[in-house]
Design brief:
This protein is α+β, with helices and mostly antiparallel strands. Helices cover about 30% and strands about 20% of the residues. The protein has a single domain, classed as L1 transposable element, RRM domain (Alpha-Beta Plaits, 2-Layer Sandwich), CATH 3.30.70.1820.
Length: about 130
């Protein structure tokens, strides 16, 4: 049952990208999309204003940390799955990913596996 729920959760996230390391400012969702547009087009080697259709973009849903804590991840949902896969493939081929001298990391947005309870024999995804 837990594997089925995890599978459904991941299917709902299949077009999502998670960007780690982008400094937190008081960006509106529109400003965040403009920053993502610049970063993702840089990865693709395209003009920084080339269109990318976002469904949504936001910071991870947890409280903002102390000033010295790492920034919350940025999660964006792209309208095109193939474009998301191309971005991930191009990002893997790069030596590093930076934005305004900040090192960034790009991941697919997958759900955390369920924590094994007492007596469970969770063997991971099949």
């Amino acid at each position: 049952m837990a594997l089925h729920i995890e599978d459904l959760d991941n299917r709902g996230r299949r077009n999502n990208l998670r960007l780690r390391g982008l400094p937190e400012t008081e960006d509106s969702p529109q400003q965040l999309q403009e920053i993502l547009l610049e970063i993702l087009n840089e990865i693709l080697g395209r003009d920084h204003q080339a269109p990318i259709e976002f469904v949504r973009a936001h910071r991870a849903l947890r409280p903002k940390g102390a000033p010295d804590s790492p920034p919350r991840d940025v999660i964006c949902c792209l309208a095109n799955f193939a474009l998301k896969e191309t971005i991930l493939k191009q990002a893997r081929g790069r030596r590093s990913l930076t934005y305004r001298n900040q090192d960034l990391q790009l991941f697919p947005d997958l759900s955390a596996p369920p924590a094994p309870g007492p007596g469970s024999t969770y063997l991971g995804p099949h």
